Amino acid sequence: MNDDASSEAGAAADEGFMARALALAERAAEAGEVPVGAVVVAGDGSVIGEGWNRPIADHDPTAHAEIVAVRDAARRRAAYRLPDATLYVTLEPCPMCVGALVHARVRRVVFGAADPKTGACGGALALHGHASHNHRLQVDGGVMADACGERLQRFFRARRAASRPAVRLVRLTPENAHGYEGVAVGEGQGAFVSDAPTLMRRHFREGYAEALYGIEAGGRPVGLMALVPPVQGVDYPGRRGDEAWLEGLRIDRRHQGRGVATRALRGIVAIAARRYRWLSLTVNLRNDKAEAAYRRFGFRDTGALYHGGPAGPQRILTLPLDTEDENGEGT
Ligand SMILES: [Zn+2]
Is pTM beyond 0.90 here? Predict the structure, then answer.
């Protein structure tokens, strides 16, 4: 075999063993552990050790996939050193695991996704070739990096989603609005919330709000907002006819920062999109944080200002409802 052919065969073999490590990572994910898998391959190409991440199940902070796989191989070999072995792991090893692999005298380490936060093979640290070690690991990273990294991202996305309370919009009536009286939404907003039924009755009497929505998180009232139809809406140069307004999106301060506002906004956008082509709102000129959040959602500055409120001039932001899917925030 010439060098090109042998390196191609080597790359194919690396991918085969990495695929096996990735399958073991799935075992970790099934058990609720961070999905990392590892295999130890002897010089003759036989698999002599397997492991997946299991510190939670084992009550063992050292039970990383690499450690589990190396222990498995060493036991099977009845040896404490594995000088012909290659370890395949789906994530760049941490300092503890690099230390264990050096102790085991493993010849080569092949990893999938790089770990810039805690990786010790060049990601955060470069311990594999450290001068103080009397053994140098040969390291090859980035084998099936996309598949390995995607598996981890999918796991963390699912875990974040599971830890967040379910958010539900409730169309309020005078009968069901009383649960929202205690929602603490911050300075200057007390009247809006503490008297939600009265506010709503006034809105309906004046034909102002199309609907007042309560925001529930985890089954509890945590916020309010109103959808305002175009007829009695705010007047400003260039305003559109088929445009609804979002008013008073307020989240109880004890429930802020948990993605509740974003999901409530997603819900009201879906409701508005059934009847309108645009959703607009006003933000205080000095409220950079709120403005940035709405812009991330896809709202754009119309260039017009609203002068009708007690808070002084407000910036008008608009979201085109027919393109909501393009900004990735569609429901
Ligand atoms: Zn580790």
Answer: no
